[in-house]
Request: fold
Amino acid sequence: MTIEWRYTTHQDLGVLSLAGFLGADAVARFTGAVGWALARGTKPVILDLTELRGWSAGGQLAVAQAARQLADKGRSLELAAIPSDGSLDPDGSHPPIPVHCDLAAALVAHQAVTGQAREWRTDEAGRAEPGGTSPEARDTRERKQTRKQHERRDREGQ
Reply:
């Protein structure tokens, strides 16, 4: 069994999504995907494991190596939706790797750090997609609506 991967770019990060099982026979393919991500961006990478059915110790070591490779280039790696069969703890020699419960949570957490305001939701397949409006955007919209109401009342009262 091997893995399938997909790399998507967002304004301030890249998302490398894996599907399948990250075992010894898939490490070379995963390493190639990480190389692809390294060559196509300069921002942090979220490793989306939503569709990953599991990973071996060798797969976990490959993820730790990916974190080291990204750190060497001044980039970070974050994990989203790690497989239920365990957490990442291969040898402790890798840089810190934030772990999020799902991709939507990872995107929200990353945006909180960068100061962006956008909400994400998870669809039925567990994929994150933009959805809703951020609290900041709602507050701004409500303030504008309130100001317009006051202006309208002032005009009507004159």
Residues 123 and 129 are 7 Å apart (CA to CA). The helical segments are 27-39, 57-72, 103-114, 135-157. The radius of gyration is 20 Å.
